[in-house]
Design a protein that fits this description.
The protein has helices at residues 3-13, 15-19, 27-30, 104-112, 131-143, 168-176, 293-300; strands at residues 88-90, 118-120, 145-146, 153-154, 183-193, 199-210, 225-235, 243-249, 258-263, 268-271. It has 318 residues and is of the alpha+beta class. The protein has a six-stranded antiparallel β-sheet with strand order 5-6-7-8-9-10, with no helix packed on it. The longest helix has 13 residues, at 131-143.
């Protein structure tokens, strides 16, 4: 792994530290805001625009939308902050200072492995989305509805469903339906690391995902899917040649998750309804469950390209 890639992965791994300090309000405070605040006090996708009192978190001023010179769609995006140095590092020697800002798992790694450290960089609020996602979020603030059991959403499209959340279920759906672009192509290697430090190769492959929920001007023909994904393993040999197709609906009660798998040994496509929830994911050696797979592939994305509703990914036909 190159130094650039290693640094990117490390920055992603410490995102939870920065997230602890990002200005936010409690669910009780949310009642004091209304949809019009999404155009002033609040960010257009929800959340406070102001920075924190300590000055370590800057205000949101529109996000990072600068196109690097010479960049072409489909290129690996360069790190805009590649020249930055860590503000400080967390090690076993100083972990007590930052214990309240670390997830339990991260703290355990620092304490168990004396050569393990977390480099913390300056926080940048780079989040940005197209204007139509902002406009749809504003509409969703008045039209989106949560089911009685909190397991599905109706009346939302193309934006954050509950930008001013009132309960934990709404916060959960804001995460599930967060802006991730409309189409993603990624290549990834999956490894597991044992407690003894042994690195075990699990799989290599490519994937294509499209997000019908976020297609611009696509609400009238929305098929109910949050995302559709095609995963094609290329290694190890016993997985090469197989493929997995998934369709994840916004309302799993109305439209259950649909999955298919092509089995090389049988030369058959089989329905795979078990590819969800706590079913172990073979592509990660069973360490990750299928309901964690989306977050995993987002972190492993190395090539991203966007496409509109009129020009969907030709590689993914459903």
């Amino acid at each position: 792994m190159s130094d650039t890639k290693r640094r990117s992965v490390l920055k992603a791994s410490i995102a939870s530290i920065a997230a602890c300090a990002i200005p936010k309000w409690s669910l009780a405070q949310a009642a004091s805001y209304g949809p019009e605040d999404l155009k002033s006090t609040l960010m257009p996708l929800g959340g406070l625009r102001v920075g924190n009192a300590e000055g370590t978190i800057p205000p949101w001023t529109g996000g990072y939308s600068i196109v690097p010179p010479g960049y072409r769609q489909g290129d690996i995006r360069p790190d805009p902050f590649a020249d930055e140095k860590p503000v400080f590092s967390i090690t076993a020697a100083n972990i007590a200072q930052y214990q309240d800002k670390l997830a339990e798992g991260a703290a355990a790694l620092v304490q168990k492995y004396l050569n393990f450290r977390l480099d913390v960089y300056q926080t940048h609020r780079t989040a940005v989305a197209p204007q139509y996602a902002y406009d749809n979020t504003y509409k969703n603030a008045t039209r989106a509805r949560l089911s009685t059991d909190g397991n599905s959403v109706t009346g939302a499209y193309g934006g954050i469903p509950f930008p001013i959340p009132e309960n934990g279920h709404q916060v959960m759906w804001n995460s599930i339906l967060s802006w991730q672009g409309t189409c993603i192509h990624f290549a990834s290697d999956a490894y597991t690391v044992t407690s003894a430090g042994e690195v075990v190769f699990e799989s290599r492959g490519q994937g294509w995902e499209q997000y019908p929920y976020y297609f611009e001007n696509g609400e009238s023909r929305f098929n109910g899917d949050i995302y559709d994904a095609l995963l094609v393993p290329t290694a190890p040999p016993y997985q090469a040649g197989s493929s997995i197709l998934l369709r994840q609906p916004v309302d799993p009660d109305l439209q259950p998750v649909k999955g298919w798998v092509y089995l090389v040994g049988q030369r058959r496509v089989r329905r795979a309804p078990e590819l969800q929830y706590d079913t172990p994911d073979a592509l990660t050696g069973g360490v990750v469950n299928w309901d964690e797979a989306t977050s995993l592939t987002e972190n492993l994305t190395v090539m991203i390209s966007s496409c509109s509703a009129k020009k969907k990914c030709t590689s993914l036909t459903i």
